[in-house]
Give the backbone structure.
Amino acid sequence: MNRRTFIRTIGGTGIVLAASGVGLASCDQMPKSAVAAWEGPDNGLPDREWMLSYAMLAPNPHNMQPWLVDLTTEGEITLYVDPERLLPETDPYGRQILIGQGTFLELLNIAAHEKGYQTKISLFPEGEPKSGSLEIAGKPVAQIKLEKGAEPSKDPLFRQIPHRRSNKEGYEEQYLAQTDRDALAGLRLNEGERTGFATAAEDVAPLREFARKAILMEMETPRTLLESIERTRIGADEIAKNPDGIDLNGPLFWWLKRFGLMTPEEAMTPGTMAYQGGIDYAMGWVEGTHNMGWLVTKGNSRSAQVQAGRTYVRLNLMATAQNIAMHPVSQVLQEYPEMADIQSEFNSHLGIGPDETVQMFFRLGYQKAVSPSPRRKLPDIIMG
């Protein structure tokens, strides 16, 4: 079987299909070890490890899972940023990374209550890192004290944790039902936070255009594109070895990789199948977007960023409970220089005040559930 008979490109779409069906259905499937965490922890685990197993299912930027925890003190969990898992090009100030700390923290809190613990959470117990830099590692993000005693109220969202997804597919051409929108809009927010939703054609169209322009800017800026490519795991073997980052597996990618058509060099080179395929894929889900939402905070302190992560993941869990697909679209919020003009226009369009920051921008809609993203093993994040 040669390259010519194997590959055909559907005219003008950039979609590449394998021409042979022999054995392809079972080729290069997601390694079971990479998604085992979504089956839930062993009930025999110590309580803190049991809670952390749920926290590790949190959404986070580029699926880098940038968490480290210290369990040295009995009855406590101290959360840190993993300095090896930052995104210096697309997230130069660590804002998105800290949002990802917040999503982890909220799932940990929900799981602790499920296990019968009260929690006392202190953000930045050794002082809050300054804004405007990537100096967010080294000092704890949060200290969580766990206390058994008065039975805490269990959170009904707990049971949604293993089912939560960031669904990157195109969604059905359907606007959010008013009851669904009202339910999401009813989420209890932290002080200084507000949400907004666009669920009509005339409101979504300009936001979809902002998403399109921002994605193209990220993909056409070599250093920001490279950051994603370096964190992409292609094929089951790579995913099993590094169950993090952006995962690509299945027959199509197995064959492309085998024939040298899916390499970092190819993905960085305009005009290649790998480069254009990435753009076509992103434009596909942009076009398949019919509802959008955003989360805004007053100011942009490090604490506000963490708290925004806690709010966002609760919104994601609520959407899961209502069979609503959800997917963060973070490109337009990134703070590197090339994105500044698009971001300024976006903020103006939404009426964002000078003392406000859009922390999350996301798609909403109806689509069947997708497979979970890979997760590292629990020992990987435990310090010491």
Confidence is low (pLDDT under 50) at residues 1-22. The first strand starts at residue 7 and ends at 9. Residues 267 and 275 are 4 Å apart (CA to CA).
